[in-house]
Amino acid sequence: MKHLLTIAGSDSSGGAGIQADLKTFAAHGTFGMSVITAVTAQNTCGVTMVQDIDCAVVQAQIEAVFDDIRVDAVKIGMVSKPEIIETIADCLVKYKPKIIVVDPVMISKSGYPLLAPEACETLIRRLLPLATLLTPNLPETEAITGMQVKDKASMVEAAKKIITLGAQAVLVKGGHLKVQADDLLYDGRQELWFGGERIATKHTHGTGCTLSSSLAANLARGMSMAEAVAASKKYVTEAILHGLAIGSGCGPTHHFVDLYRKAGILE
Q1: Given a cut of 80, is residue 110 above it in pLDDT?
Q2: Which residues of 172-206 are buried (b: 16+ CB within 10 A; e: fewer)?
């Protein structure tokens, strides 16, 4: 069994962050471990408060895992402050995990800022050069590159710039495009496009976390980058199609559709 580590924030409503990551790891038949960088007070309607975890505690969590357990892949999600990013980067340089998937979480679905403005430069400088794969949506791509990204042509140009910043590969997610929701995978050599269907639902809480965690799991299981993206997009699409109408806002995706289906309890 592969061992996956998520370094991210906690979502009290269970739909995103650490909770979504661990559910996704389990759904892919891998063992999930966690380093919590922040505790958020949130539900399906939005985020109301964030408490960052002390850097020494973040470091101690990372060391506790790596000093005892083999880590086959790392997924990095919400890392809101420069000093936390520096701590994580220093630890990853020390332990050298083979696979690092970075989801540059910047703003919650409800618009709450999850990355301090001064932390963006630190993320670019310290985490991008360590990333096996970066998974930004279009607003995050714009923040990282300083470019306007509104169509497929500008997605390509932005992806090329991100590669120059050090990431081995980037998946620019096109969910914010007006017409199609296609994603671009670029590794400095090849452009691969993955079509995406728009699903008429508001229950998409945690999709970015879920996709990046699925990618980390599939890469750890030995898939090529293209195979991992195709499989992870399929997984997330199924999870969205069976999204859960929990709460009064944007409900979470269903991380265990296949398991529930096999058990005969899929509603």
Answers
A1: no
A2: bbbbebeeebbbbbbbeeeeeebebeeeeeebbbb
